[in-house]
Amino acid sequence: QVQLVESGGGLVQAGDSLRLSCAASGRTFSDDNMGWFRQGPGKEREFVCAINWSGSTTYYADSMKGRFTMSRDNAKNTVYLQMNSLKPEDTAVYYCARRTSGIQWPPVYAYDYDYWGQGTQVTVSS
Q1: pLDDT tens digits for 74-99?
Q2: What gap in Å lies between CA 123 and CA 126, rounded to an integer?
Q3: Residue 58 phi, psi dihedral angles, 5° rounding
Q4: N or C, which terminus of the chain has less Cβ within 10 Å?
């Protein structure tokens, strides 16, 4: 069993930055590839980015490249999402998730993941 807990969301203005955290527990975190998704109001869940087990490889959705950075600290069992130059359209609930073992890279679909956090709300005002 894996438990994922996101934090760091909030209300910010356009152009601001936020760093989200996702703390994992329940198994050997350093074996797992991880991802971030988001779901805006009235929208489907959307892939944001993914990171491999060591942190050496990341993959981003095109619309996030250059503004978002995913990283991890295996000693702290935590992954991060640094979000810069935030826009109102970034408003969403952000979820971290663990990629299911055996799924090929990059894991961009929600069904590629088997454990999810409860999400953290990010609201960007214009």
Answers
A1: 999 999 999 999 999 999 999 999 99
A2: 10
A3: -130, 160
A4: N
